[in-house]
Automatic annotation (TrEMBL):
Record-listed E.C. numbers: 1.1.1.22
Function: Catalyzes the conversion of UDP-glucose into UDP-glucuronate, one of the precursors of teichuronic acid.
SMART domains: UDPG_MGDP_dh_C (SM00984)
UniProt keyword Oxidoreductase present: yes
Annotated InterPro entries: 6-PGluconate_DH-like_C_sf, NAD(P)-bd_dom_sf, UDP-Glc/GDP-Man, UDP-Glc/GDP-Man_DH_C, UDP-Glc/GDP-Man_DH_C_sf, UDP-Glc/GDP-Man_DH_dimer, UDP-Glc/GDP-Man_DH_N, UDPglc_DH_bac
Pathway given in the UniProt record: Nucleotide-sugar biosynthesis; UDP-alpha-D-glucuronate biosynthesis; UDP-alpha-D-glucuronate from UDP-alpha-D-glucose: step 1/1
Catalytic-site annotation from UniProt: C267 (nucleophile)
Protein name in the entry: UDP-glucose 6-dehydrogenase
Length: 442
């Protein structure tokens, strides 16, 4: 199929590695590019450098089929491909919270100097502040007359990255009015479009905004229910029953109403801060002041879990033994970026507790960043002798725990369910004191 788009993917982090593999899976020739030589080596050897169910098998399959190669050279990508996806990171700047765009800028400049041609299409996938694509389009037009830029945000969730990429809820194409980008993106995604995935074609800025608005909405939904949990605590209400009653209203829906220690990860926290910073720059900061509250409720959820643990210990955590189940920011992930679980564990350790943590996938990453926490190899190892146990990531393995089996291993049977992962009745029947944010103390 010589008319098929030939694809390069710049940046092989979470987003880029998944996108490259999935594009190859669709049958295209794909070149993945990264400045990190170690990453290129591992991906070329068929090894995914992070935990993502199903991705490694697809990587190997497509490497073997000869459709997928990885390189450190942008010049090679420019030579081999004509559609270039930019999937580099946009981290949070430490002071302002604004997005750091240096990798995105470097990718586009790099493509220009590597010899991008007039017929080439550059497609941004990274999450960027509104206005970035328009600026990059001008830079590209000045550098390579005839080359085009489109914005095609990515909504994949960690843990479901392959499925979300191959079967997205929607495709958003932000394009300039009179170009070829829409036609070419339709060719890239022809199979999904044929399967009925809806396409929204819009301008650059709206496409950028869809992504940040979606994440802002999701974050708001989580903080809304966590705010209700605070009210439940003050009134004796039950946030889980409240959420399930709310969910019957189809306008509200049941998803993202799980109260607990709040959202973390590499996207939601940084994206709502970058969105506020951008709104401030644009002079519409007031429109997004509520996101500051969303952030505050979220941070408070972590502190409330720490307070519950203190209370369970009858005061100071100093020299007390605490078992923590979960380190990843969510289950089915080894990602510990801005992990609420680790922040709660660290706060208890700083207050003097002996904290032992178990996580089925994220322990290695957690150990590297939190050298003062102890890590156990099993649930039993983490809770041995504990005076309170906290469940802080809702891994399936923790949901399935038998409280009766666990009980003899702890010093005092008190469990704090930070994620609404456990059945309170079952734990209470087995002799445990069950506590959760926003739930009554029966
Ligand atoms: C998110 C968006 O869902 C995705 O569309 C976007 O592209 C990237 O950011 P991800 O960071 O992988 O994806 O995680 P997500 O599943 O959205 O969970 C984010 C955080 O919210 C996790 O810490 C999770 O534990 C928490 N969460 C989620 C809740 O606390 N309550 C909920 O009801 C749902």
């Amino acid at each position: 199929r010589s008319t098929d788009p030939r694809i390069s993917v710049i940046g092989t982090g979470y987003l880029g590695a998944t996108h490259a593999v999935c594009m190859a899976e669709l049958g295209f020739d794909v070149t993945g590019v990264d400045i990190d030589a170690g990453r290129i080596r591992r991906l070329s050897a068929g090894e995914v450098p992070f935990y993502e169910p199903g991705l490694e098998a697809l990587l190997r399959k497509n490497l073997e089929a000869g459709r997928l190669t990885f390189t450190g050279s942008l010049a090679e990508a420019v030579e081999r491909a004509d559609v270039h996806f930019v999937c580099v990171g946009t981290p949070q700047q430490p002071d302002s919270g604004a997005a750091d765009l240096r990798h995105v800028e470097a990718a586009v400049s790099g493509l220009i100097t590597a010899g991008l041609g007039p017929g080439d299409l550059v497609v941004g996938k990274s999450t960027v502040p509104a206005g970035t694509a328009t600026r990059l389009a001008a830079k590209l037009a000045a550098g390579v007359p005839g080359a085009e830029l489109a914005w095609n945000p990515e909504f994949l969730r960690e843990g479901f990255a392959v499925d979300d990429t191959l079967r997205p809820d929607r495709l958003v194409f932000g394009v300039a009015p009179e170009g070829t980008a829409e036609r070419r993106l339709r060719a890239v995604y022809a199979q999904m479009i044929g399967d009925g995935v809806p396409v929204v074609v819009t301008d650059h800025t709206t496409a950028e905004l869809v992504k940040v608005a979606a994440n802002a909405f999701l974050a708001t939904k989580i903080s809304f229910i966590n705010a209700m949990a605070e009210v439940c605590e003050a009134t004796g209400g039950d946030v889980v029953e409240l959420a399930s009653a709310l969910a019957h209203d189809a306008r509200i829906g049941r998803r993202f109403l799980q109260a607990g220690i709040g959202f973390g990860g590499g996207c939601l926290p940084k994206d709502i801060r970058a969105f506020q910073a951008r709104a401030d720059e644009l002079g519409v900061g007031r429109a997004l002041t509520f996101l500051g509250e969303v952030d505050a409720v979220n941070i408070r959820a972590r502190a409330r879990a720490v307070a519950l643990a203190r209370e369970a210990l009858g005061g100071s955590p100093a020299n007390r033994t605490v078992g923590v189940l979960g380190a990843a920011f969510k289950p089915n992930s080894d990602d510990i970026r801005d992990s609420p679980a680790l922040e709660v564990a660290e706060a208890l350790r700083r207050a003097g507790a002996h904290v032992s943590v178990y996580d089925p996938a994220a322990a290695e990453n957690a150990r590297a960043c939190h050298p003062n926490l102890c890590f156990a190899d099993s649930v039993v190892g983490a809770v041995a002798g504990a005076e309170v146990v906290l469940v802080l990531t809702e891994w399936h393995e923790f949901r399935e725990l038998d409280p009766a089996v666990l009980r003899p291993h702890v010093a005092r049977p008190i469990v704090i369910d930070g994620r609404g992962a456990l059945d309170p009745q079952r734990w209470r029947t087995a002799g445990w004191t069950y506590r959760a944010l926003g739930r009554p103390r029966r």
